[in-house]
Amino acid sequence: MEHARKQGSVILDIRSEGEHQQGHIPGAISFPLLNNEERHEVGITYKQHGQEEAVKKGFTLVGHKFADYIGRAEKLSAKREVLIYCWRGGMRSNIMAWLLELSGFHIKLLSGGYKSYRNFCLENFKRNNKVIVVTGKTGSGKTEVLHALKRRDEKVLDLEFLASHKGSAFGGLGQPEAPTQEHFENVLGWQITGFNGAVIWVEGESRFIGRLRIPDAWYTQMMNAETIELQRSIEERMERVIREYGNFPQEELIEKTNGIRKRMGGENVKESIDALLAGDLKGWVKPLLEYYDKTYTHSLEQNNGKVLFDLDITGKQPDDIAQMIINTMKKLS
């Protein structure tokens, strides 16, 4: 695994493009020996006629593409050094390794293939890490504070960035397409293990970020971690939410507001949407924050970790807040 982390490493995923899309090692390039349709054909041949015929079928389908594979690999790695993997480190990766080695490449095969990487990630979620959770009500600016901590070389795990979602009912607006659950776990595991035992800073989240679920073992660590609570005035929080979401089309905001009707209550949703239709963005945001504040208070009650301290950050900028946090942590150590 460590070879895959080296600066400039070229990692080739020999599985089909569909398998790659479902989940892969972060940074790996899709380089299928068999594409989706070819893999399906070989699979049918294997079921109907056995392994020998399936191997023949595979070579029939891809043999004429060998020169293309070599040419593409040369473009991807000027040093002719690549790490290769398939599903279990079997036939597909061995065929590609044989071909590229004949062409002068230095090949490393990932022992156990992608399956071993998946197991590596899932097992690492269970290992104990030193985690500090930054909490605060919606609109407090927790993400910006985490970014400021990262600029100070702290190890920050940005779950919302990895999930392409900012957590609330409105969190998907303006975000790129979310990864699959499998790939979300892959990148999360990759980042956690890359921190090498350092303190990991993370934002407080519910179990789901959009449609993606935080792995249970990691979520349990978050719920038992030490926390720092950021407190900001309601006026500033409303202004922040309006800056972040107020410019999206009105129909999208109405749709998202209606999406939490069952939890927020029909009257509260009506109050919020009526204000939005009247062009009163503060009137739209206020009932939403009241709802999310109740949700936040409930989530704090589920947290089993020690509260290290809280900070009133009203009127302060992210870099100043990050420095306040670091200074206070030094006093506590």
Oligomeric state of this protein: single chain
Number of helix segments?
17
Helical content stands at 40-55%
| Poorly predicted ranges | none
What profile does the largest beta sheet have? 5 strands, parallel
Question: What is the average of the pLDDT values?
Answer: 92
Strand order of the largest sheet: 6-7-5-10-11
What distance lies between the first and last C-alpha atoms, to the nearest angstrom? 34 Å
Secondary-structure element string = HEHEHHHEHEHEHEHHEEEHEHHHHHEH
The chain-level structural class is alpha/beta
In one word, what is the shape?
Answer: elongated
**Total number of beta strands:** 11
Strand content: 5-15%
- Our Rg estimate from Cα atoms comes to 25 Å
Task: Summarize this entry quickly.
This protein has helices spanning 2-5, 17-22, 36-49, 51-62, 66-76, 91-102, 113-124, 142-151, 159-163, 181-194, 216-223, 234-245, 250-258, 261-264, 266-277, 281-302, 318-332, and strands at residues 11-13, 29-30, 81-85, 106-109, 131-136, 155-157, 200-203, 208-209, 212-213, 226-231, 307-312. With 333 residues, it is of the alpha/beta class. Helix 15 (266-277) runs antiparallel to helix 16.
